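Table S2 (continued). Query chain:
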Amino acid sequence: MIISILFSVAIFQLTSNEINIHLKELQESLRVEFGFVPLRNDSLLINEATEASGRISIGLVYANFLIFITGGIGSFLLAKRTLRPIQEAHEAQSRFTSDASHELRTPLATMKAEIEVTLRDKQATESDLKQVLNSNLEEVEKLSRLSEMLLSLSRLDNDKLERTVVNLSDITQEVLRRYNLPPKRITVKTTAHSLVEGNEAALSELVAILVDNAIKYSPNDSLISITLARRNHHLALFEISNSGQGIERLKLPHIFDRFYRADTSRTKSYQKGYGLGLALAKKIVELHNGELSASSAPNHITRLTFLLPIIQ
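Corresponding output:
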């Protein structure tokens, strides 16, 4: 607005001077042509100049008012649009800190309570002490897993991955060998070679997260299916599907958020995850210029699919 007002003042001064010059030239031409003798303070000249300056000033006032309204509204909308990602990042960071604190506090509180109860029990036997130690060891393992996941996310946020030629089919078979599952629990179907350029350790972690997620949220006697194929001749497709409880449509877009779980209850014994696995999986896929998506419905098949650029 300051720039607009300064320009308006300059325009007013230049235009007013130009009008006075033209009026004087017109008066001089009338004197030469028709013998008109102007007065020193010609009222007609003064009135015309004053009226023209008034019209110019009114026009500039309207123009500045219009600039103020449109500029204010436009600035507000653009500022709101610019600040939206910052606000979302701030909310995500606050939620991440709150959830991380909750996940860290729960096992620590459990360990503290068990130790305090055992110390107060003067009749505790060796068996009781071993039971407490085993329970504490389980909580320590949970904390270790959580720390590893947080470190992995932090490392992926700041590091650049070294890339080589990786075969997704070989990685999948290697990951499945880690699980002691019945032979028919997981089936793998490969319809095309899946050579991609990426970090082998990160892609192995990606496949392990998806396999672990499918095992965790499906019945023990259900079938998990993995498909390796091509899409549009230049993308490698990895799809894993499992039956189970499924995910509601409103919750589905948030499953890749950190610490988000479709079941908000944190007290169920079977809920062993921290809601970080799929967030880590999405980060790995994004670092490989790929795309990770999910489809599901309550009591239906849940599918997780990622696409990576293929090496021709």
